[in-house]
Amino acid sequence: MRSKAPTISVRVDSLDSGKPGVKIGELERLTRLLREYDRELECFEVYCGSGNSRDEMIGIIETMFRIFNDHFPSARSVNFAGGHGFAYEEWDESAKHFDWHEYFQELAETARRMDIPPHVRFLFELARDVLADTAVLLLGVKREVISNPVSSLVPTDGSRMLMPSAQLRDRRHNIVFFDADMAELTGESSTSAALRGRTILRNDYILPGEYPVPAGVDARSYVAIFDVGAYCATQHMEFLNVPPPAEVLVDVDGAAHLITSRGDDLDKWRNLLFGRKKLS
């Protein structure tokens, strides 16, 4: 306001979570400051956490509109941000994804009931739900299952640094093991084990917790981790020399193209190819 910025937008931390943002208890002071400077908000966003259910997100709609009516009735946009849950542990697509149809119906009804002007734009950050199931992370198994009296683990060539979607909230992902010919390994599980990463960090586990490992998993095997499209494989730790993975884009017709090549053990860069390379 002092610098006379052309527009002003505000992030509200409704959870008092310690994350950046104006706290609920500070909204009155912010409202007074806007009046003092004769300014109006372009947009306000409310942080409401992540992984919320449909009912929780519907409840947040009323909170957003109450803030609008009580504090910023002239704002031009309301950013509902993210938080829309995605069920990583489910297999069925309809069970995985957030119920947007019912959510938008409730949004429209609540906007009418609380007299939100029709010119106000609604913004959403829905990358996790839209993109999570667009990608699979494929890792190589480096040794047979290592067991000791305390636990068992599967050594892989991956890293927890490639799986931030799982680390923050101990999210469970669906996984499948394959043999050297990429045939799925099924049958009774021989053991329950953690998926170990490639770095020297003692907490370098690809996914939190343990997973059932079928008999036959060895140094020629592979493991696929599903639903990693939103926050996964292009991220890597440069100071640990974790090479970036190769990335393959599968077209709608099923044709596969290499779009980045895998780095070597000392490579710190994502090797974007100049042109797509078709894979047989």
Distinctive features:
alpha/beta, five-stranded parallel beta sheet, four-stranded mixed beta sheet, 6 helices, 15 strands, 20% helix
Secondary-structure map with pairings?
Layout: E1 9-13, E2 22-23, H1 27-36, E3 43-47, H2 54-71, E4 77-79, H3 93-96, H4 100-113, E5 121-123, H5 127-131, E6 136-140, E7 146-147, E8 152-155, H6 164-167, E9 175-178, E10 189-196, E11 211-214, E12 222-226, E13 247-250, E14 256-261, E15 271-279
Parallel strand pairs: 1-2, 1-3, 3-4, 4-5, 8-10
Antiparallel strand pairs: 6-12, 7-8, 9-12, 10-11, 13-14, 14-15
Helix pairs in contact: 2-4
Rounded to the nearest angstrom, the radius of gyration is 23 Å
Class by alpha and beta content: alpha/beta
Main-sheet strand order equals 2-1-3-4-5
Count of β-strands: 15
Measure the end-to-end span. Answer: 58 Å
The share of residues in extended strands comes to: 15-25%
Q: Sketch the major β-sheet.
A: 5 strands, parallel
Mean pLDDT over all positions: 89
Which descriptor suits the 3D outline? elongated
| Parts with pLDDT < 50 across at least 5 consecutive residues | none
Figure out the total of helices: 6
Assign a percent range to the helix content.
Answer: 10-25%
N to C succession of SSEs: EEHEHEHHEHEEEHEEEEEEE
